[in-house]
């Protein structure tokens, strides 16, 4: 069987590649201005179908989103059959296909992929796809559907939904009717799975005080509203920033990325939040979560992905102990270099911690090596993975006391409340609420697990970010040569200093992170290192980092 060349030709002519743009499938798929992605979406439709054929007709997911990016951006990424990120070797295929300059070149690239990846075209192709609320979404989905049609894929439209719900669908579809069945492949199945587990976990606990959820004016608003119906009064919450049809509102001065980056309360919440209240922000596709609260004096405190990891990992360790499973179930944590040094210290004193390069796939794969792997990026993206062996252990274990039995039941419910396919803001929110409830913590007690080291993240626009190469989980530069030792000199001049430089995988910039014992020192270190990067790499004069703010 060969490709239906005519259908692909017709489709490709309708979705021509812009001549002057080079596309790249990065750590979060393709991501750029929504207006230039038409050809990419058509081609991703074909690629997703080929990936499915390669995997014997297992369902592949396609998500159209640009997450926390501003509204004019959009993007697309593929989801592999277990609900995880696309296998790295196929990222290269995606980049190659997206850059074929003409229809003929595209067909040649497709044929070459079919040969090198040994794709049997007679196999079925099955995909499930969804989009977030961005205005450019419908047109991009239409281009994607043209790609599915051109190759004859069996495509299921999951509509407008969150990224983690799409990941859940992929895993649920592919495990249906097997011993690994992940749940019903519908939104109802997803919400029931999460909310039933949450309700079990908080049974008998005092009622939670109302939570405020900042939905970033994105698709999380729709999902959170649905979740409320399933939770009833087991978790009272109010939704803010739900303006999904207001032009320019998405992720604008709100949402998880705004809170994490600016370390501030979204201005839209300043009149809504009361001292002592707990709140959280989702990002534009609801896979990131950042908590915060106002203290008695109305001062803002942020509880980021590192704080979530600390809270959750300690709780799981405690439940494992209560269930008397310490010998059989080892819990570990995975972080990136962006994890606050104080969080790493806190966690290392309690359990094994591994540092990996930025990018969910690195975290996810490292977490899979533990019996229970907790991974969170500081920016609030993360989840907890329970290995198949651990799941079997939990289901086979015979508790010998009522306390052990409760610990075991809690662990089993945790495996259900957590979306193990990918970071999921709503699932993570329920997880956090469970732990706060069990520990009777308010934001203040949670925050005091450890004190964050002051830190600063800045971007530098350089001539070629690919000139920056790193080692040691991105904590040290090997190229440009000599730059790392200059950074080391600066770091040594700042008390409690730590700084590293790496090229972004999602933006055409180099990122500089610094932390130190004092805020002014962290800012100074970040801007001095950024200045070094700028001077070494010939940055854009407009963006030369200011001395320090
Ligand atoms: P880059 O642009 O490679 O730094 C950013 C985030 C990552 C990850 C990806 C994917 C930071 C510093 N970086 O990557 O953690 O979330 O986006 O969305 O937050
Ligand atoms: Zn996101």
From TrEMBL:
The record's EC number reads 5.4.2.3
Per the entry, which co-factors are needed? Answer: Mg(2+)
Q: Supply the alphabetized keyword list.
A: Carbohydrate metabolism, Cell wall biogenesis/degradation, Isomerase, Magnesium, Metal-binding, Phosphoprotein
Pathway of action: Nucleotide-sugar biosynthesis; UDP-N-acetyl-alpha-D-glucosamine biosynthesis; N-acetyl-alpha-D-glucosamine 1-phosphate from alpha-D-glucosamine 6-phosphate (route I): step 2/2
- In this chain the Alpha-D-phosphohexomutase C-terminal domain maps to 457-530
According to its UniProt record, which reaction does this protein catalyse? N-acetyl-alpha-D-glucosamine 1-phosphate = N-acetyl-D-glucosamine 6-phosphate
Active-site positions, per UniProt?
A: 67
Which residues make up the binding site for Mg(2+)? 67, 283, 285, 287
How the cofactor is bound: the record states: Binds 1 Mg(2+) ion per subunit.
> Which residues take part in binding substrate?
377-379, 502-506, 511
**Gene3D superfamilies per UniProt:** Alpha-D-Glucose-1,6-Bisphosphate, subunit A, domain 3 (3.40.120.10), Alpha-D-phosphohexomutase, C-terminal domain (3.30.310.50)
| Single GO MF descriptor | magnesium ion binding
Entries under Pfam families matching the protein: AMG1_II, AMG1_III, PGM_PMM_I, PGM_PMM_IV
Biological-process GO terms, alphabetical = carbohydrate metabolic process; cell wall organization; UDP-N-acetylglucosamine biosynthetic process
The UniProt record lists the Phosphoacetylglucosamine mutase AMG1 domain at 207-289, 304-441
Every Alpha-D-phosphohexomutase alpha/beta/alpha domain range: 60-88, 108-177
Q: What does this protein do?
A: Catalyzes the conversion of GlcNAc-6-P into GlcNAc-1-P during the synthesis of uridine diphosphate/UDP-GlcNAc, which is a biosynthetic precursor of chitin and also supplies the amino sugars for N-linked oligosaccharides of glycoproteins.
Similarity remark = Belongs to the phosphohexose mutase family.
Q: Which PANTHER family match?
A: PHOSPHOACETYLGLUCOSAMINE MUTASE
Name assigned to this protein: Phosphoacetylglucosamine mutase
């Amino acid at each position: 069987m060969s490709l239906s060349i005519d259908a692909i030709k017709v489709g490709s002519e309708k979705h021509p590649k812009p001549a002057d743009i080079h596309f790249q499938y990065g750590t979060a798929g393709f991501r750029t201005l929504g207006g230039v992605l038409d050809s990419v979406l058509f081609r991703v439709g074909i690629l997703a179908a080929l990936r499915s054929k390669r995997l014997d007709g297992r369902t592949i997911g396609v998500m159209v989103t640009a997450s926390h990016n501003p509204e004019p951006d959009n993007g697309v990424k593929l989801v592999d059959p277990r609900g995880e990120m696309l296998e790295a070797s196929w990222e290269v295929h995606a980049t190659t296909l997206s850059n074929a300059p003409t229809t003929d070149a595209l067909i040649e690239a497709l044929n070459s992929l079919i040969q090198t990846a040994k794709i049997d075209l007679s196999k079925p192709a099955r995909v499930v796809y969804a989009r977030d609320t961005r205005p450019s979404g419908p047109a991009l989905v239409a281009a994607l559907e043209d790609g599915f049609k051109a190759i004859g894929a069996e495509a299921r439209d999951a509509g407008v939904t969150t990224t983690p719900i799409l990941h859940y669908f992929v895993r649920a579809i592919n495990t249906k009717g097997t011993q690994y069945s992940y749940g019903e492949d519908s939104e109802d199945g997803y919400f029931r799975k999460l909310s039933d587990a949450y309700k079990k976990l908080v049974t008998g606990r005092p009622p939670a005080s109302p939570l405020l959820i900042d939905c970033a004016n994105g698709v999380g608003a729709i999902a959170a509203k649905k979740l409320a119906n399933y939770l009833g009064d087991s978790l009272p919450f109010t939704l803010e920033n739900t303006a999904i049809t207001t032009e320019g509102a998405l992720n604008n001065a709100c949402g998880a990325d705004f809170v994490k980056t600016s370390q501030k309360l979204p201005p839209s919440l300043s009149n809504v939040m009361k001292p002592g209240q707990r709140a959280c922000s989702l990002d534009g596709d609801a896979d990131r979560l950042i908590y915060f609260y106002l203290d008695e004096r109305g001062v803002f405190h942020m509880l980021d992905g590192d704080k979530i990891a600390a809270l959750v990992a300690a709780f799981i360790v405690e439940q494992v102990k209560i269930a008397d499973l310490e010998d059989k179930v080892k819990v570990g944590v995975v972080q990136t270099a962006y994890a606050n040094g104080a969080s790493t210290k806190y966690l290392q004193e309690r359990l094994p911690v591994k540092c990996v390069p930025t990018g969910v796939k690195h975290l996810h794969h490292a977490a899979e090596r533990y019996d229970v792997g907790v991974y969170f990026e500081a920016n609030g993206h993360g989840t907890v993975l329970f290995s198949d062996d651990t799941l079997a252990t939990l289901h086979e274990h015979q508790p010998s006391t009522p306390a052990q039995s409760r610990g075991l039941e809690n662990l089993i419910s945790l495996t259900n409340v957590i979306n193990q396919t990918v970071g999921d803001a709503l699932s993570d929110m329920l997880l956090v609420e469970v732990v706060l409830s069990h520990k009777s913590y308010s934001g203040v007690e949670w925050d005091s697990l450890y004190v964050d080291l002051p830190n600063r993240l800045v971007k530098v626009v350089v001539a070629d970010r690919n000139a920056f190469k790193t080692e040691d989980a991105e904590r040290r530069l090997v190229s440009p040569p000599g730059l790392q030792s200059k950074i080391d000199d600066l770091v040594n001049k700042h008390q409690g200093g730590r700084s590293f430089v790496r090229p972004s995988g999602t933006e055409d910039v180099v990122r500089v992170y610094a932390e130190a014992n004092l805020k002014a020192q962290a800012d100074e270190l970040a801007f001095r290192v950024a200045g070094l990067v700028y001077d070494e790499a010939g940055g854009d004069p407009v963006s030369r980092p200011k001395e320090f703010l």
